[in-house]
Structures are given as C-alpha cells and as structure tokens.
Amino acid sequence: MTRSLRALVIPALLLGLLLGACNRNHVDADARLREGLAQQQAGNLDTAREAYLDVLSVRPDDRFANYNLGLIASQQGDDQLAEGFYRTALNTDPNFEPALFNLAILRTTVGATQEAIDLYGRVIAVNPKNADAHFNRGLLLQKSGVAKEGLKELKVAIALDPSLVDRLATPPIGTSPSPSHGGSPTPTPSATP
Fold first, then answer.
1. d(Cα 29, Cα 62) in Å, to the nearest integer?
2. Category of 180 on φ-ψ map: left (φ > 0), alpha (ψ -120 to 50) or beta
3. What's the rounded Cα separation, in Å, for the pair 110 and 140?
4. Across 48-116, where does the E strand assignment appear?
5. What Cα–Cα distance (Å) separates residue 156 from each residue in 70, 104, 188?
6. Taking CA 68 as the corner, what is the angle to CA 167 and CA 18, rounded to the nearest 5 degrees?
7. Cβ of 123: how many Cβ atoms within 10 Å?
8. What is the value of pTM for the model shown?
9. Per-residue pLDDT tens digits for 159-183
10. Taking the mean position of all CA atoms in its chain, how far away is CA 59?
C-alpha cells in the first residue's frame, strides 16, 4: 500500500470506529430491552440476543438484559455463559430473585451443592413464599445429610404449593425426587434499572 493511500485509509478507519461508538451511545436501551423481551417471548432468540447486547452496549449493568442473555444461553446449552450473565445481573442487584434461582439450578447441576443451598437461601430471604426455592433447598439439604432441616424446608414448600407433594412420590430405584424449575421466568422490567 502506498504511503498516500495509507494516510487516507487510517483516518477513514478511525472515523468509522468513532462513528460506530457514537451510534452505540444513541441506542434507546429501554426500547431495545422491550424489543428483546418481545423477540424472546416469540422464540426469536438470536434477534433477542442482539437487542440485549445493544442494551448492554450503553448499560452494561442492566440486570434484565444480563438475566435474559443468561436464559438464552442456558436454553441453547451454554450453561457456563449463562452463569456469567446471571452473576453479572447479581452484581447489579444481589437480590434479583430470578437470577438467584437460575444460578442455584446451574450450580446444582455441576455439583456445587453448598453454593446452591446458599443461593436458594438467598431466594427465600428475598421471597419467603417461593415454594420452589424451599423445595429445591429441602432436597439438597436432605442429600447433604441435613435431613431434619431439609424436611422442614420441604414442609414449607408443600404448605405454600401442595402440588409439590407429587414430586416427593416414591421415585424409581436409583433416582431421586426431581427439583422444581419454577420461579425462573423472563422478568418484565417494571422500571428502568
């Protein structure tokens, strides 16, 4: 490349980068978040992901965008990426119940039982009426040898949601009761975070 051509190309590239950065600052994060939610609910996960990434380009700590990116990653089988997004959402709001619950599920699947028990405990502290969190915590406590406390949690769960008793029916040999995956929907932002 000739010296004069290089002198024109480099400023053009820099101008392009600057304009791209300026355009990112003009993203209507609230509108893109609403678009992402609509696309996610319609099953258009790639389009939803792009909308959420646009939100994060101007609001990297947006708990809803991070959480929903975690949901999408989990649905697509990338639990490690999902965990990162859930943790980022929790860095912004340590009491964000859906992120706590889903992170507890992920930590359970990798054998981090005590961390999952603690996360379900945090869910319960935020929302004592979350039957699914009581149920899952109860199962994990029993599995960990803390049967009495586990039974107490299971009783609370069933008092809150009697349908959970069906999950305690005698499971087939070699299996255990199924944890509940309830309580982790796509949250709708009630206000701009």
1. 9
2. beta
3. 13
4. none
5. 29, 19, 27
6. 165
7. 27
8. 0.76
9. 999 999 988 864 433 334 455 555 4
10. 17
**What's the rounded Cα separation, in Å, for the pair 60 and 85?**
11
* Both structure tokens of 139: 């199962």
Amino acid at 29: A
Q: What is the pLDDT of residues 68-124, one digit of tens each?
A: 999 999 999 999 999 999 999 999 999 999 999 999 999 999 999 999 999 999 999
pLDDT in tens, 33-58: 999 999 999 999 999 999 999 999 99
Task: Assess whether pLDDT exceeds 50 at residue 22.
Answer: no
According to the 3-state scheme, what is the secondary structure of 112-152? CHHHHHHHHHHHHHHCCCCHHHHHHHHHHHHHCCCHHHHHH
